[in-house]
Design goal:
By secondary structure, the protein is mainly beta. The chain is built from one helix and twelve strands; from the N terminus they run αββββββββββββ. Keywords: Signal.
């Protein structure tokens, strides 16, 4: 009996560790007083709904949480882009964001949180199809004065 309980406890601990490893948290980086817990990455298929559950933890703040979502690339939001959430008695709010991708690729769901204390942002990688998220190459040039400058790629989105 003790051996079975011990094996069950070890298996449960491994499952919990695996689940925690697959989430990203804004703990320690939040200026809003809200910890954002979300999957570290999300996978989906083209032309199919992609759902992301996000938990908001408010340890010492009793007000509303204003949340807005923005997508990049071929991702489009199917759920509201702005929400006002009210934490439960444990200081936790949950929201599920639904997106749809028009084509395969790698992009981000950007989460913006604002409270009376401040704001913060979290980006969640979303991979649709078999695409992988690869950093784009940078290039190095020298100015006429000989100063080395690294050019990094950027994407501008106009809404």
């Amino acid at each position: 009996m003790k051996l079975t309980s011990l094996m069950f406890g070890a298996a449960l601990a491994l499952c919990v560790q695996h689940a925690l490893a697959d989430t990203v948290s804004s703990f320690g980086k939040s200026y809003s007083g809200v910890e954002v817990r979300a999957p570290s990455s999300v996978r989906g298929a083209p032309d199919a709904p992609v759902e992301v559950r996000i938990d908001y933890v408010v340890p010492r703040f009793g007000g509303d949480i204003d949340v807005s979502y923005a997508t990049e690339g071929s991702l489009t939001l199917k759920s509201p882009a702005r929400r006002r959430l009210l934490p439960d008695s444990n200081g936790i709010s949950h929201d599920t964001v639904v997106m749809k991708a028009g084509s395969a690729g790698a992009s981000f769901l950007n989460v913006f949180v604002k409270t009376g204390r401040g704001s913060n942002a979290v980006s969640i990688p979303v991979t649709v199809g078999s695409a992988t998220l690869k950093p784009q190459a940078s290039s190095s040039i020298a100015t006429p004065n000989g100063q080395r400058v690294i050019e990094m790629p950027a994407q501008e989105t106009i809404r």
